[in-house]
Amino acid sequence: MSEVIIVGGGIIGLLTARELVQSGAQVRLLEQSTLGQEASWAGGGIVSPLYPWTYSDPVTALASWAQDYYPELVSRLYQETGINAELNACGLLMLDAPDEDDALRWAETHNKSMQRYPGADIQAMEPNLTAHPQQGLWMPYVGNVRNPRLLKALIASLQQSPLFSVETHSRVVGFEPSRGERLQVQAKQGKSAKQVVFEADRVVVCSGAWTRQLLESVGVEIPVVPVRGQMLLFEARPGLINHIILRQGKYLIPRLDGHIVVGSTLEHTGFEKATTADAKAMLLQHAYSMVSALKEVPVVAHWSGLRPGSPAGIPYIGLLPGWRNLYVNAGHFRNGLVLAPASARLMADIVLGRDLIVDPTPYDPAVDRSSEPMH
Ligand SMILES: Cc1cc2nc3c(=O)[nH]c(=O)nc-3n(C[C@H](O)[C@H](O)[C@H](O)COP(=O)(O)OP(=O)(O)OC[C@H]3O[C@@H](n4cnc5c(N)ncnc54)[C@H](O)[C@@H]3O)c2cc1C
Question: Which atom, in ligand 1's list, is nearest to the CA of 331?
Fold first, then answer.
């Protein structure tokens, strides 16, 4: 059975590992710090792109497959580990879609449930709303998942398998072909940055925002850049809001225990992850203008994460040009949590030569998309 090394232990690396282990491959995961602590932890966990009709079909194809699969994934992980990733099938209310007709056309084409509601109906669904929209869009099929718990469940499940092993504090720095079509992976381990070498039949790079830098070491250009996002958490009581609420690109996400996540910023600040007072003030202002009762609710956390920004928000999934056994699964930008199950399945299908769940062409790393705008 083949040996696979996965580089990066975010949602993409962990789910890719799960897919491969389930098919009988031996998987070693190398992570530069600890598992599941970067963008995948920081994200909001909305199981849909925001304003999904503004994305291209390749994003919709992966999102749709994953949205169908999420309930099964969360329930299986709960059975396997006892950890509940708390999929909240709460629906999403969009208060200000500027292009509602486009949205409704997209929904019809892609068979998604989406309705235009008058303001009074929206107010009845969310009595604490102070934004008072004239009308809005209701997307009942969109939920949210508690992503830090999803990561915990995935890690716990993988650790039950004798086929899985992990090396944390192992920063991969290079790749080299080895004998018998194997691949050597060079890493620096621990505080002393001790040089170590691993070997496998295949390697999948799932290193999120760090992918461009890592693959430069083998002369492949994958234009993924870090895009910082900041979030706040309110310790609210259950029922203050009942649905995800989206307005002016900012959102409120209700967790099952009542906590409300507010996000987010989109900042090109390189690998700088510090949070800022300006972003906090801006997010508070948006939150209060949607639900003024939040002024009485304590903010208990403020954090940031680095999204793997990519042209058109389309991830790179496939074999790297010029290589026979080095693959990439990265660049999911704002949608890595929703896209992850489909992206990981597609990656595993490609690695294992199985039938593919979607046409892989739009995600092919060999296709130059660097002139397309970030989205
Ligand atoms: C504020 C915010 C809100 C978001 N909200 C949502 C949302 O609501 N819905 C949604 O679908 N998506 C959302 N996202 C996007 C989503 O979180 C990301 O697209 C997704 O987490 C990317 O997953 P990843 O595994 O590629 O990256 P990461 O989670 O960043 O994981 C990459 C891992 O690779 C490791 N690594 C990097 N380089 C190396 C190396 N050389 N050697 C070893 N290890 C390495 C890193 O340490 C890291 O652990 C949000 C993101 C942010 C920041």
Answer: 26
